[in-house]
Amino acid sequence: MKLNSAGFENPIGCYDAAVQELIVIDDVLSAMVGVEGRHILINIVRGKQDDVTFQVDPSMDLALQELAKRIFPLCRSFLLINQFVESRSQFKSGLVNHAFSAALRALLLDYQAMVAQLEHQFRLGRLSLQGLWFYCQPMMGSMQALSTVIQKASANSFSGSAVLNLLQNQAKAMAGDNAVRLLLEKMTQCASNAYLSILERWVYEGVIDDPYGEFFITENKSLQKETLTQDYDAKYWRQRYSLKDGIPSFLANIAGTILTTGKYLNVMRECGHNVQVPPSENSKLMSYGSNHHYLECIKAAYKFASGELLNLIKEKYDLLGKLQSIKHYLLLDQGDFLVHFMDIARDELARKPDEVSVEKLQSLLDLALRTTAASADPFFEGVTCVVERSSLLKTLGTIKDLEVSQSDSGGNDLEEPVSITALETFSLSYKVLWPLSIVLSRKALTKYQLIFRFLFHCKHVDRQLCGAWQVHQGVRALDTRGTAISRSSLLCRSMLKFINSLLHYLTFEVIEPNWHVMYNRLQSANSIDEVIQHHDLFLDKCLRECLLLLPELLKKVEKLKSMCLQYAATTQWLISSSIEIQSPEEPIDGSIGLNKAKQKKSGSLPQVLKSTGSAAMMDSILKFESEFNAELQSLGSTLSRSSQAEPYLAHLAQWVLGVKNEKTGL
Hints:
Number of helices: 22
Helix content: 55-70%
Shape: rod-shaped
Order of helices and strands: HEEHHHHHEHEHHHHHHEHHEHHHHEHEHH
Structural class: mainly alpha
């Protein structure tokens, strides 16, 4: 077979124009379905982005060449679309590409039917090349728009939501051509059906049925619900299910709601509570459009899942009852068990943290709980004891995510105690089971424990000062006016006033008001995320208003408490050193002798003040008083200054300044 230099058999130019037109029509009809003709060759360029070029016999009539070249873009679009359909129909391409390819295949069948009809007209002698060009016009824009989409999809290896976004963007770009826009919207709808079927299972069942990883929600199966009680960051709740990049644009504004809906359904399934959103008329998500019906379906599913989970946690698992129980113990709402516990565990709590037997403390705690009013609480068995290894100040410095104020407190650093006891590190904990661990996570319990440790140590200081006050009351019968004991009694009273004022502020000015606000908000919450938000806000407010996030003030309070403990520890020695027990051999006369006789008969010996050593005692008392007054005044000034930025400190300032004024008046 003889070929010319261009690769054609016999040059078409040897025929007259009428014969050439018939030959060109036959070749163009073949090219329209991807088949080479005798005088029109097809060159397919393979690569990252496929392309198609056409070569015509140069001897062809120029007018016929121009008409044929006008139809070549349609032929090119067919070849590119057909190649895309074949490649994207493979298993690995994903459900969206499969659905898109199926829609394209249906379109190509219509296109091939049109070509067959044109060929039939040609065989009947009723089709000219000009007529062929005319009949190709309606399909030209649509095929070219689709070829643009599939070229971009192929070049970027798009799948899933990326294909949907590409189709939707192309439809918006073709807003001026109504026919092409409608075709692209139809393609988008067909391709999105597979995606919406995944979405439907997620929002109605809480199941991710996504074999190709196309869905915009991913599941991290390595995170288990049991980690919530140990993981401070609560990764299970935040990261077990999370959003990926590439959210379909028509779901972008409601993606968070979609994620939350499935999460809620999953929690209920993890609880063994088999629940499914009740199907209603037109609740299927198999299509979307300008009426936004799919958005209404998603919102209805969210509302159902949210209400069902909230009802489950409130009613079946009694969230509010558990919170009330935690308030009894970790916020010392009912302190009778604590008084009993501190009495029976006094010796164990006086040990160093690493020498304490936690098992013994736990048994003593159980005893205190069972023998006091706490035994009426159905949840008291969930209370456990913990002995930390560092002081409260040091612990606050190591916990992340606490918004600790960075105020200038460099000159007020409180030295870490050289030797701390379990009294400074003791804390309670609470056993929380799924699903309440979503709200009462490790992070939330840690915040409760920080507040408890502060309250517990304040209670300890109060008990020690009460013991010192009782010592003073023991010598009340003596005439102590103008003596060191009288001065010590006034100092003890001032210290008690300070610690009682602090405890009153913590309990009645901070915890109780904030608790009531949180409790009322929980009653009206519409979702578990709102419950978590209100609960976390309560804890954060309590931490800040209890001074735990204000290191400058906290260090001053800790220093004052340390002074109170030092004073209470030395009070017994100071008073005993100034009291003399008179021996029975001394003569008895007068009224004093009568009193001594009565005391001797009752088995007690009289006490008198020593004349020696009173100066040393007075010096010690004055030193305690001076340091306590100075630190209290410093705290009052700092509170007054800080109350402008932190208004709640004004309440504590009033109480502290009240202590100072009373001291001045004395």
